[in-house]
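task queued by scheduler; priority normal; single chain, no ligands, no partner chains; default sampling; output format set to structure tokens
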Amino acid sequence: MDVAGLVPGAHEGKGLGSQFLDDLNQADALIHIIDISGSTNALGEAVEPLSYDPLNDVEFLEHELDMWYLRILKKGWNKFARAVKGEHGKLSNAIAKQMSGVRVDEELAEDIMNKMNLNEDLLKWTDDDLFRIASELRRLTKPIIIAANKADIPGSNNNLKRLIEKFPSYKIMACSAESELALKEAAKKGLIKYIPGESEFETMSNELNENQKNALDFIKKNILNNYKSTGVQDVLDYAVFNLLEYIAIFPGGVNKLVDKDGNVLPDCFLLPGKSTALDFAFRIHTDIGNKFVRAIDVKKKIAVGKDYVLKNRDVIEIKTSN
């Protein structure tokens, strides 16, 4: 999901800030794409390469997100704090209710309360306390990976090194979206054989013109040899499998692992970690979930029940009632 642009003061509704934050609220993880070459400024305007410091963009987004969470946390704070104190309610439960709009549950709220060792009296919390809570909640509920795009532009590597040094807690990946697009277009035309995420491609045609040869040579030398991929697929994989901890599950039968065209296991479903066989059945179709009888672990050729916890790359056949 590509979200609206962000400008300073977005948390106050400036620019498309409200739309941006509403969009973000639907996301489980964020890929922050920055121009590591410094050729795009804070307002999204094109400038001379290396003339803008891309590290500002990381701090800028962090600040806007933290202030957004803080605004939600502080909404009607005094009234909220007095009510919790007067009702002798559980602190973590109260915080979870206050922040439910950004997917904070009681367990997460309790972990943070324990970690920060805060005063049990909410009315004694300072603005600094509230900001620290908001920032930590943002970090845990909106995990971020940074895609350092335009790594192919000369001089970008120095910015990338500075970025990694300043933000060691982030996963940062060098990317060249332009190179990825060029490789995909060349593969589409049958000029090369290329699988997204791989570190090399195979030339399939002798009809490449000089410009095409130069472009492919540049990508190979400056991107694939340096970074081992264009980074685009790597970023997506990391967001799905590391940040979100999803698993890949294949539907298939014990005696049927190919489709009518001979493709082996052509379908794949991404599910949250700890999903069960029944969860998978419902993910395929509601009727299949409702009529679930048992599942078959195709690799092991054994029957499993509805509560069987799936593992990454399991091949599962679902048996249903008539």
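post-processing summary
- The two ends are 38 Å apart (CA to CA).
- The CA atoms of residues 108 and 140 lie 9 Å apart.
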